[in-house]
From TrEMBL:
Ranges in coiled-coil conformation: none
Gene3D superfamilies recorded: RutC-like
Protein name as it appears in the record: RidA family protein
Pfam families tied to this protein: Ribonuc_L-PSP
InterPro entries to which the protein is assigned, alphabetical: RutC-like_sf, YjgF/YER057c/UK114
C-alpha cells in the first residue's frame, strides 16, 4: 500500500511535524485544520470566517487527494466555546449538502487562543 502525504504550507506542519492530509488504503485523513491564512498567517476574527477558511483549506487538501466533500464520511469540530458553533451550521450544511458525514463536536482549547474552530475530516475514496 502506498501512502501519499499532502502539505499546505502551514507553519504548524513544520513546527509540529505533520501533514495536512494522508492518503492510505482508500482513505483520506485530513488533520485538524483552523482558519489561518497560510500565506500571511492572518486569523480572521469571526468564527464563521475561520470556519469558511478552514473548509477552503480542507477542500484543497481533499482535491489534491482526489476526493471532495461528498466523499467525507466523518467530521470532528473542536471549538473553545460551543456557543459559537451554531453560527457555523448554515456554512457546514451548505458544504456537505446531500452528503452529510457522521459528526462530533468537542469543546476544548485550541493551540492558539485566537482560533475559534478546528475541523478534522476523514474521506473514503472507495475501492
Amino acid at each position: 500500500m502506498s501512502i501519499q502525504r499532502i502539505t499546505t504550507g502551514s507553519t504548524w506542519e513544520d513546527k509540529i511535524g505533520y501533514a495536512r492530509a494522508v492518503v492510505a488504503g482508500g482513505w483520506v485523513h485530513v488533520s485538524g485544520t483552523t482558519g489561518t491564512d497560510h500565506a500571511t498567517g492572518a486569523i480572521p476574527e469571526s468564527v464563521t470566517d475561520q470556519c469558511a477558511l478552514a473548509l477552503e483549506i480542507i477542500g484543497e487538501a481533499l482535491s489534491r487527494a482526489g476526493a471532495s466533500f461528498a466523499d467525507v464520511v466523518r467530521v470532528t469540530y473542536v471549538l473553545p466555546d460551543r456557543s459559537e458553533f451554531e453560527a457555523c451550521w448554515p456554512l457546514l450544511s451548505q458544504t456537505f449538502g446531500a452528503n452529510p458525514p457522521a459528526a462530533m463536536m468537542i469543546e476544548a482549547g485550541l493551540i492558539d487562543p485566537r482560533h475559534k474552530i478546528e475541523i478534522e475530516v476523514t474521506a473514503y475514496l472507495g475501492g
